[in-house]
Amino acid sequence: MKFAVVVFPGSNSDYDAFYAASRVVGEQAELVWHKDSDLKGADVVILPGGFAHGDYLRTGAIARFSPIMAAVKAFADRGGPVLGICNGFQVLLEAGLLPGAMVRNDRVKFVSKIVPVRVDQTDTPFTVACASKQVLHLPIAHGEGNYYAPADELAELEANRQVIFRYTNAAGEVGPEWNPNGSLNGIAGICNRPRNVVGLMPHPERASELQLGSADGRVVLASAVRSVMDGVRLHA
Amino acid sequence: MKARVYVTLKPSVFDPQGRVVADALVTLGYADVKDVRQGKFFEVELAGADPAAAKARVTEMADKLLANPVIESYRVEVLQ
After folding, report:
1. What is B2-79's CATH number?
2. What is the average per-residue pLDDT within A185-204?
3. DSSP letters of B11-67?
4. CATH homologous superfamily of domain A2-229?
5. Is the CB of B68 less than 8 angstroms away from the CB of A58?
6. Model pLDDT for residues B26-37, shown as the tens digit of each residue
7. Residue B24 touches partner A, C-beta closer than 8 Å
8. Residue A221 C-alpha, separation from nearest chain B C-alpha, in angstroms
């Protein structure tokens, strides 16, 4: 199977994602330039972290006009698995592929550290290989990861089990002291309604080998491999 | 023709930057400052002479790109 990693001008985790997909989980992977218009036959698409288009205007706001995004949207509409990591998550929000928006971290600081993240739902292509409520230690590195959605939309997200990852302590407990950025309900990652598009602020690809401080993130891409191999159907 | 667009976070969205600026102003001695909301300001220069049409177009631009309607609201002014 094959991963496509989209490269925007200003992406900086593109090679991390490429490395994790090709060398760590050992699948085919291809970097796809944002001006390309096709995804090279990929089974899974990753929008990596970084500062696409300098994050001008708002994080992710300009990247949604990159030519490749039409192909990403068409792929997502067909049920193809799409993972947005950090800036990639912000791009998915601005592109309307995921609901809600990001605002500046509540403590107005860029936060870069390894934090515990709980997997709340395992029925997505990027969490099928996780145990329910498994706590992963993953690095975060962002200034705008403070997830916001209007109250009615937030309630809908929770009711539809679209909150996939949450900031917790190592025991998997949610609380303001474990929330690094002020995100509503401690949200670290969500999925769309059909569950094939997932976005998260933490970087699983940067935690895929023990030398990097944690190998917990490997399960996210391993999930993608399993879901493609098993032909997991996430929606009717 | 010129139009101005003012973009601010909606009242329901916490503005961490505005809060920090407000705290700094209080530290400077402006004890009467209760809150600050930080926003963005755009000046858009347009071809055409019809103010009503300009307002409609710039409002559309604000909706589609200049503001993110999930978290921000905006106000458009057309200058003669």
Report:
1. 3.30.1280.10
2. 98
3. TTS--HHHHHHHHHHHHTT-TT------EEEEEEE-S-S-HHHHHHHHHHHIIIIIS
4. Class I glutamine amidotransferase (GATase) domain (3.40.50.880)
5. yes
6. 999 999 999 999
7. no
8. 30
